[in-house]
Amino acid sequence: MKIAVRSLAFLLLLAFSVPAVSEALPPAAAGLFEGVPVIVMTHPTLSQVKNIVEMYEKDVLPLKSLVLLGIYHEDELVNKEQAQAYLDAFTYVEKNGLSWVRFRKITGRVGIDGLFRENLWTAQFREIFAAASGFIFTGGEDIPPAVYGQETSLLSEPWTPARSLYEVSLLFHLLGSGRNPSFAPLLGNRKDFPVLAICLGLQSLNVAAGGDLIQDIPSELYGLKTVEAVLASAPDQIHSGVYLEKLFPNDEDLLYPFHRVRLGGNSVFVGRMGISARATPYVATSHHQAIGKLGNGLRVTATSMDGKIIEAVEHERFANVLGIQFHPERYTLYRKGLWQRSQTDAPLDFNPLAFLKANPPSYDFHLALWKWFAEQVSAQK
């Protein structure tokens, strides 16, 4: 049974009791975790943790063994709703006896002017990196535009600034940046280390590399001003389910949108995952922002069908760094019994898994992506 919401003080006390990384792999557990791949994941809320747990259990993420280390910044817990999201994750892990899921708190405050150099977080980043076999940067709220040198649009929603600051700085530490060319990135000595950056993760990756963002796709790229105008667009131009939710906020069964992506012939999807360059797989999408100016060292390897949205980037120096704007990690994509509806008055007749399988190579594309990531993670141990 989910623990009821208590006072904020109690939530913070419980959340702050989560083990530090030195305790995440204790000596007493060496026999259990020795030689086991460690995936570090940002923003380990209940839904994000369940994504990995269910994909691992269903062999969508085909690893024989795994340690999942969820990392978060202490200031994320100032917000009561955010603190509850983490508490739910901690409770889920404990209730289900998931000893292979651990957590690590990042401490200390760094301002925007200190993100792109050694700072109070550097030693913590290095410690985590030394234990890691791969990183997953997850989706979430908008990055404060000041981080990439812009004023804040009325349509931006930078509600988790503490998270954005430490994640952008972590990606800078991993990969380096045009913002500080003399900095020696952590991947410099592990060039094949895998980093998968999803949705907000892709945007953070681009900002860390010195790029910027389009703060609102419908208004800035398509000249649309209303929810109704967005929903009247072609399906391949609708990038978020928030528009349908705004019209029907009390309907929890509405599907999230899918659209097709166009793959580059020089991409990891074609060259290493075995997907045809002519393929246009469907992907789940949930974003209203996108890459604007491309960051240093990145190249575009997938776009929206009309070419206006960058859907994937890869790193020119580090071959296993992949940023994607879509969501292949949602466990709801791999459930036979999950049903949704496309309109609020429609029956529950849409199954995401059936949809992907009915539109090849969409399902195989998702499996190939996770197989590729698992192989790169396994190669680190």
List the helices and strands and how they pair.
Elements: H1 8-16, H2 21-24, H3 30-33, E1 38-42, H4 46-57, E2 67-73, H5 80-95, E3 101-106, H6 122-131, E4 134-137, H7 161-175, E5 195-198, H8 200-208, E6 213-214, H9 217-221, H10 227-231, H11 242-247, E7 258-263, H12 268-271, E8 282-284, E9 290-291, E10 298-304, E11 310-315, E12 321-324, H13 352-358, H14 362-378
Parallel strand pairs: 1-2, 1-4, 2-3, 4-5, 5-12
Antiparallel strand pairs: 6-9, 7-8, 7-10, 10-11, 11-12
Can you put this structure into words, describing what you see?
The strands form 2 sheets. The chain has a 10-stranded mixed sheet with strand order 3-2-1-4-5-12-11-10-7-8, sandwiched between helices. The chain has a two-stranded antiparallel ribbon with strand order 6-9. Helix 1 (8-16) crosses helix 5 (80-95), helix 4 runs parallel beside helix 5 and helix 7 (161-175) crosses helix 8. The protein is α/β, with parallel strands linked by helices. It is 32% helix and 15% strand.
Global mean pLDDT: 92
Strand content: 5-15%
Largest sheet: 10 strands, mixed
Work out the number of β strands.
Answer: 12
Class of secondary structure makeup: alpha/beta
Order of helices and strands: HHHEHEHEHEHEHEHHHEHEEEEEHH
| Measured distance between first and last alpha carbons | 37 Å
- The gross shape turns out to be globular
- Helical amount: 25-40%
Query: How many H/I helices?
Result: 14
Strand order of the largest sheet: 3-2-1-4-5-12-11-10-7-8
Oligomer: single chain
> What is the gyration radius calculated from CA atoms?
20 Å
List segments where confidence is low: pLDDT < 50 over at least 5 consecutive residues: 1-31
